[in-house]
Design goal:
This protein is about 0% helix and about 60% strand. It is an all-beta fold. It has a five-stranded antiparallel sheet, with no helix packed on it. It starts with a strand and ends with a strand.
Length: about 70
């Protein structure tokens, strides 16, 4: 399944694997053309616990938040 327009850009279904855990996610992005060439920009927020990142005392969001924002600018 390919990218689809969502009004402000595009969304493509994706699979992300971290530490051996694979999750399906929607990857929203914008695609523009600049005088330097094409540019893809995206931002997605993940829950680090979904990928087994942080356990025991590190699972407590007091020290390290559960939500991790990933920005892409290519």
């Amino acid at each position: 399944q390919g990218a689809r327009a969502d009004g402000t850009g595009f969304v493509v279904p994706a699979r992300l694997t971290l530490r051996g855990v694979t999750k399906d996610l929607s990857f929203p992005f914008t695609w523009t053309t600049t005088d330097r060439g094409p540019r893809l920009r995206a931002s997605v927020t993940l829950d680090r616990l979904d990928f087994g990142l942080g356990s025991g005392e590190w699972a407590d969001p007091e020290w390290v938040g559960h939500a991790v924002r990933v920005d892409v600018d290519i």
